[in-house]
From TrEMBL, chains A, B, C, D:
GO terms for molecular function: nucleotide binding. This is Gfo/Idh/MocA family oxidoreductase. It comes from Stagnihabitans tardus. Gene3D superfamilies: Dihydrodipicolinate Reductase, domain 2 (3.30.360.10), NAD(P)-binding Rossmann-like Domain (3.40.50.720). Residues 142-272 form the GFO/IDH/MocA-like oxidoreductase domain. The lineage of its organism: Bacteria, Pseudomonadati, Pseudomonadota, Alphaproteobacteria, Rhodobacterales. Residues 4-134 form the Gfo/Idh/MocA-like oxidoreductase N-terminal domain. InterPro entries: Gfo/Idh/MocA-like_OxRdtase_N (IPR000683), Gfo/Idh/MocA_oxidoreduct (IPR051317), GFO_IDH_MocA-like_dom (IPR055170), NAD(P)-bd_dom_sf (IPR036291). Pfam families: GFO_IDH_MocA, GFO_IDH_MocA_C3.
Length: 377, 377, 377, 377
């Protein structure tokens, strides 16, 4: 199977996200990097792209240059990854989609609901793939959880409880550290801090596993470090289309929690929980039965769980390969085999609607509000 | 040290709570059972008390008979435990306090806030001990947590997150089982189901460890099994007097969770978590440091943690001995050494105020309400 | 059911073992303390016994005095517990058995194999109960494990792997601390250090769960702190009567392990593991199936597991109540309902034979030796 | 930094090991696949190599053809991976080393000690890198463990206890399954079954972390499934050059253990444990202190732990990226920066000596034997 051509925007030297995407794209051999505009500093970006094996003529100084240079080529990228600062996602993603490229956009896909709706419309109009990097949803045992819900193994889902809480912003004396501060500054982060950063992963996961959408929500935001303008801790109660009750807690001041992203799903005939720090297990309890440890690689898992695992049972696979699984889904989709599990623009839009709804609710003392984007109401 | 005399009301043969109290009272040799009215069926109660070693003349048919028989005796009980159905707690506790007995009342102490205030007043007036069986607060490592907060080891407490969620009422086909059904029937359970049953343990724990009181709250209640009139799942956001943000989730439909009571506390300079299924550890993370496993029995623990532990480090002590710790505190208090950790009538009253506040908030779509009893506002 | 009379020898004030036995005997109300010789210092022993509620005439200065005083009484103890220093177990146990008392002896039951055989003979001749306090075997989920093996749920047992390793003697600078030093001094501890102290609990557990006996063994002993004459670390390979392969590791220098006693059993059709720090679970995996978490209190457990548990599923019960379970078994046995799970003199003898066999093997560079007492060959 | 050229022998379509090596080599962009002889069936091998992007002229039918075709090229592979059946490792590795290629050989490097010594001599003579894929040693927290031992953080190492035990060969009815049977058939597997397969990973790990070598050992082998000629369970006691006591258990019939590879190291001033199923943590206890959870990505780790980690703290990295870390070390070594952590031919030789020593000891009822290869005595 021929390798696909891949281009990348952002993810320059020293960024955390760049290596994750490169490893994700390269690990399984589906893609080769052919073009890039990797840095907001043109020269550094060009030089770095060449060190990564891109030929000089396709190592660009910025994304507009790359768009101009690549759009007419026969060997242009089959996929472009957008891993730039949040405020630029909309513009770049839209431009590349309109030029006929498939795009994988980092989250958040946009900053406003209107922009999100625009991306959904553009993707639909052009017929191009617009994926969003909700990479946790690509862990094999998350796919297994979703498949079990879809198969009805848990009956109607009554309740989903999720958290994404860490303590890495818990040091008040660190509040002036620019790498932390911007998260809580509306001028740079927009309307929401921790909920927009981590909470939307958890909210997406709830929808993804339950195969349902958030309809209404009520939020309680807190800035537990008083100097912060945006929330560093949030609780969001929600309801989903099929009646499921949802609870979501997200925090960046939960000192001692490292990567505290987990989800519990409870239905009429069973429940399970999954945690990002031990992603290769799904802990399942059938109603009236014993708790069972399901393992990546065990016999009888769903097709996605099998397809997106590389090594034998109990050999752990971690975060970078969850990102790689997104690229596997993309490669398949580009080659003509769409994967329903791949998060698309609609998911990015729903997240943005939920962020704005949560902000509105929190400002109104927890009033319940509609969490859906207007175009999906 | 001479043994103390103990009387018991309720906790008849076949009840779960009776053995827990007997073991708690007897285990450390502080008390001997001298009188009892153990069953609402007078003959069974008298017979059972005698089988437990109570002399016939002090094996009573009901609590009024016991009150009449015991109040004038020189060797009357130093402590009376009230472990009867919830609706009778107020009346019995009040009567025994007024007659000059020390009382340990099962939770909930009363059904209404007014009754709770009455008990507080009576206890104050008589000078007698009125304790409430918030037994989880008597685990050694819970006392240690409280001591660390009091000592300022975590700095100001920003956030407390607690849950008490199990799945033992998750079977809808079991909804007609009388042992389950009454919990969700207002005629029998009062205004609240799961929150009044389990949630108040978690709320008490938050106050207990943080050494602070809940002032306002906002609640989201759900009956995830539709036939239930009262909630089987609740989320309560709250604020405490010193500004701490609180999150409390309680559920009885969380299939796969067995005894899912845990608490996480996050302050300016550290955080910790404790879970009732592994009660002998406290998981502590200082700001900027590594997570540490603190063990019951390790060197340097607070006086209460040392005093309320019986065997060496890593030899687990469980739930029945947490109840026994309440009796240790009571024995000390009766003998003239009051223990600040012992939950008293004020704690029982605050729980009742919080239940009624949560019900009011849930009915008003999560509106924030005052959670304090009027007498403490 | 009338309470039984109980007497205690040893376990004086400040000892660790005394409170564990008192709690064990009293917790469930089966016994009342009526006589005691609690301390090698006569006056302290008498005074302490009286503080524990023993009448002055039955608070003895030493065990010979107690034997003389109690043997002729109508209300003499139904059970005498021997919790004195190891070197005195044989003499006291033998004397009380011969005088017609039932005895619970702390481990090790004797110091030599010959003494062990003598106790077995005396117990047989007198028809009295001689139990040994292998208290770990009385945890509900250990009984469940044994019942599953007996029922054939795991098929033939191929392999048992157990360890009892802690790090509490890992500080070489502590080697002169008398509380530690005696363990490794042949003059005080006999032929073996760590294996005789902790290893025999693990070896008993292997026999107990597998319902089989150790026949041969090969040992590797090490004094990892060079100043020690006796081993502080030992590995013992063994074979059992039905062909099971055994592996036992015990250490007192395993810094970081607290109460590291666990066992894994593997048969033809399944395996399980149990650990003393989480004693309320049994982790079970059927061949070809998923690992399941079995919980104390779940439906369908064996009669012993149900009988020896006091509180609901997932409410932990710990070490002191495992000791109490030994007393429950004793109370039943005394009342005429013998409990096969109660460890008897034969188990104490087999441990002693295994200790001496392991010492011989270790001295002979791991040569395989017969581990059975002569009388059972 | 220019990519390196990489060739592969073995690891054909459908093998488990091929994808692991490809992901390992490609993930970080250090290597590109330029030549291959991937299958013992020439046509399938050539076709598969081309599907993986190798040009037709460098897609070979067997390794001799590849050696002939590549040895004279300017752009010949900088590294050749040997992932063929065990019995061919020696011959292929030797040939490529002699032709001046760097080689990464799958374990076991050879079948005999003599062959192992020959490889060591050839590697030395040619100056080429001969690495062996002890990939577990490339986990960041394993490198951290080794660094802490080297820095003396644990003092002199008294004791190392390791196991590599799974239950995937526990089904006796599966004993005729060719994928299982060959392991226990001397005609195909050589002198040892489970110890040679998994045990040597554990033994290597002990040496690796302790920075020491096994000198003598005593083994107890068992075929718990009687039809097996080679052992499916083994216990090996050993001693290391600096006096450390070692205990190693390996089993393939431990039903319920999945990937049960773990190690505990105990020194004078602390201990730690690491487990392959949770490879991103190192559980560390300083003497007299609390157990601490060390996390990949935390501040202050050793250079190797930092260099070989790709994503932030608590984002798990798993088995395939441990293999990738071996390739990172190889890339650095090839580029002139040798990495001491990279396992070399000497390690492969020592493993083979240990296997033969263990077999000899087991046959001699556990007699202690020299475990060193003659050339290192």
């Amino acid at each position: 199977m021929a390798q696909l051509n891949w281009g990348m925007i952002g993810g320059g030297e020293g960024s955390q996200i760049g290596p994750a995407h490169r490893l994700g794209a390269l690990a399984d051999g589906h893609f080769r990097l052919v073009a890039g505009a990797l840095d907001h500093r043109p020269e550094q970006g060009r030089a770095y792209a060449q060190r990564l094996g891109v030929v000089a003529s396709r190592a660009y100084g910025d994304w507009t240059e790359m768009l101009a240079g690549e759009r007419g080529r026969d060997d242009r990228p089959d996929l472009v990854t957008v891993a730039t600062p949040n405020s630029t996602h909309f513009e770049i993603t839209k431009a590349f989609l309109e030029a006929g490229f498939n795009v994988l956009c980092e989250k958040p896909m946009t900053l406003t609901v209107e922009e999100g709706e625009e991306i959904v419309r553009v993707a639909e109009k052009t017929g191009k793939i617009c994926a969003v990097n909700y990479c946790y949803s690509a862990y094999p045992m998350v796919r297994q959880a979703r498949a079990m819900v879809q198969a009805g193994d848990l009956g109607r889902i009554r309740l989903v409880v999720t958290s994404f809480s860490h303590g890495h912003h818990g040091d008040a004396t660190d509040a002036d550290n620019p790498r932390v501060r911007w998260r809580y500054d509306p001028a740079m982060a927009g309307v929401s801090g921790q909920f927009a950063d981590c909470g939307i992963h958890a909210l997406h996961m709830a929808s993804f596993i339950c195969n349902d959408e958030v309809t209404t929500l009520s939020a309680d935001f807190a800035s537990t470090i008083p100097s912060r303008q945006l929330e560093d801790d949030a609780m969001v109660n929600f309801r989903m289309g099929k009646g499921t009750v949802g609870r979501l807690w997200t925090s960046s001041v939960a000192i001692g929690r490292q990567h505290g992203f987990d989800i519990q799903v409870f239905g009429e005939t069973g429940g399970f929980r999954w945690a990002s720090e031990q992603p290769n297990q799904l802990i399942y309890t059938p109603l009236g039965g014993r708790t069972q440890i399901m393992e990546k690689g065990e016999a009888g898992l769903c097709e996605d769980a099998r397809r997106l695992s590389r090594v034998a049972i109990a050999h752990p696979e971690g975060f970078p390969l969850a990102v790689a699984n997104i690229y596997c889904d993309l490669a398949d989709a580009i080659r003509g085999e769409p994967r329903p599990g791949l998060p698309r623009a609609a998911a990015g839009l729903r997240s943005m609607a939920a962020v704005h709804a949560a902000v509105a609710s929190a400002r109104a003392a927890g009033q319940w509000v509609d969490a859906r984007p207007p175009m999906f109401r």
